[in-house]
Amino acid sequence: xxxxxxxxxxxxxxxxLSLLTALYIAAGCNxxxxxxxxxxxxxxxxxxxTEKVLTEDERMAWWRDARFGMFIHWGLYAVPAGTYRxxxxxxxxxxxxxxxxxxxxxxxxxxxxxxxxxxxxxxxxRLAKNAGMKYIVITSKHHDGFCLWDSKVTNxxxxxxxxxxxxxLKELAAxxxxxxxxxxxxxxxxxxxxxxxxxxxxxxxxxxxxxxPNFNRYVENYLKPxxxxxxxNYGPIGVLWFDGEWVKDWTEPQGKALYAYVRSLxxxxxxxxxxxxxxxxxxxxxKSDEYAGDFGTPEQQVPATGLPGVDxxxxxxxxxxxxYKSYDDHWKSAExxxxxxxxxxxxxxxxxxxVGPMPEGLIPQASLDRLKGMGDWMAVNGASIHGTTASPFxxxxxxxxxxxxxxxxxxxxxxxxxxxxxxxxxxxxxxxAYLLADKKQAKLPVTAGxxxxxxxxxxxxxxxxxxxxxxxxxxx
Length: 476
Ligand code: H79
Prior knowledge:
Layout (H helix, E strand, L loop, with lengths): L3 H23 L16 E4 L2 E4 L3 H11 L1 E5 L10 E2 L2 E2 L7 H4 L4 H4 L13 H10 L4 E7 L26 H12 L2 E7 L26 H18 L6 E5 L8 H14 L4 E2 L41 E4 L17 H13 L3 E6 L9 H17 L17 E6 L2 E6 L7 E5 L5 E6 L10 E3 L3 E5 L10 E7 L3
Parallel strand pairs: 3-6, 3-11, 6-7, 7-8, 8-9, 10-11
Antiparallel strand pairs: 1-2, 4-5, 12-13, 13-18, 14-17, 15-18, 16-17
Bound molecules: ligand H79.
């Protein structure tokens, strides 16, 4: 049910914000202008938020440095956890409402069972931080429409519909602020619960041939007011990560307008490419000049050679589901996940790795084990990931390379049997080399040939998964 008083207030707010958006664009402060003027350090007043105007590079800087983040898919789907009326439902866990053909009124009942007393925001944030992650993207609302925060425009939320009655996003925002992690929201444009969106498409909520004549009402009176709540009441949100943009009623002009709206509320926020219609399937290409959005979003895949010319972030699950499924035990190993993180970084991308917490508010042990494995590796080798850029010489046969200033981080997956690591010179002159795991930075012998630099390695690899050799280049 909708609280009409609040709804009216939000509607008035939305009009004011739209006016501010118009002013903002008229003032030439939107991304499309690309003036690149760093000296333009004026502040823009945007309702409660007042932020510096940044250039695109300045706005992207924290995200490009971060390289590694935690995706959290959590909602009512954690309650059935892949099983409905005693039957296992095929597909990803958070799609159970659609794949199990569960009517809205039936699915709503899971809210009464959602009481995650084990939830501890500080612990979740600490887990991400200890794994070497710099940001968290959590599902404020997934396709099922259930809201993890206290929304004023619906009762289908954690506060009004569950026995838990604690604002999960508020608690996470406080924990992230305390621990220095950026909080970001995943927000689905598709909504299987809302009567003006895809709810009437039951039994296939995802029917892309269907249209809802009231869809614009959903966008103006529900989607946008909710985004205003999320962007003004939860501190400086780093990214809005849209999804479900493939519904028939969503258009690229709407995507561009929503992008402008979001940035009018938070000028420095980043928005993924799924705000508009620019992506190609799961590849996540983002032709940023034509389409709205700041970065591409390859899903469950790493582009073979990166995505040249655009910022991008691979999102991936540790098993085969995003939302918790009690019987999915098809886990990737910590080794595979570490090497995937390195592979992504070596191609200039970010890695957003998912956890699907259980209905009690706890993260599955298998996920904790993998986060620990990654954290142990990152504690030693984090400098070879954070703040680095793509390999200057592609993918060597022994592993991967990341770069920062005059350093090249050589990620050795296959320790050479003859003890000689051959590195393409790519126009550089070597100064010295050492193992990143070696606190004393004992020098490894280096010889420079015409095309390659050869580093002599100790017999034993310090890390069976990925040993990092730091090659320091001479200033030219
Ligand atoms: O939130 C997680 C998933 O629930 C959601 N995205 C991640 C981050 C998602 N993954 N897969 N799907 C949703 C299934 C969507 C598949 C398709 Fe399509 C939608 C097939 C056709 C329309 C996406 C858009 C792929 C091609 C076009």
